[in-house]
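User: Some background: our group keeps a shared notebook of sequences we're curious about, and every so often someone picks one and asks for a predicted structure to add to the entry. Today it's my turn. The entry only has the sequence so far, pasted here. Could you supply the structure so I can complete it?
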Amino acid sequence: MNTYELLDTATISLKEIYRYTYDEWGKDQAQRYIDGLFDCFDRIARETQRSRPIPAEYGITGRFCRYEQHFVYWYDLPDGVVAIASILHVRMDLAARLEEDFQQ
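Assistant: Of course. Here's the predicted structure to add to the notebook entry:
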């Protein structure tokens, strides 16, 4: 099985997602959502998650998928590890955030 690494921007996003979900819907829902994201990361690393290439107009090489209300963006590192670079809500300005998150 391949592995994944959460980049700093993705880790920050996870914390924000948890905090928002906790505040809005409680601890159990927050934990379920975060657990679902980690299951998604595992599927990405195993290459069993349906995904698409990031559109060329973003100027970034990588792939993405949707998990409920978020898009997960990643790219492959030279050692075969998957770098989870960004987790963005579907309503965010994707182009601006992706450019920022992928410059790590």
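Suggested note for the entry: The chain has one domain: 4-101. Strands lie at 4-6, 52-53, 63-67, 70-76, 82-89.
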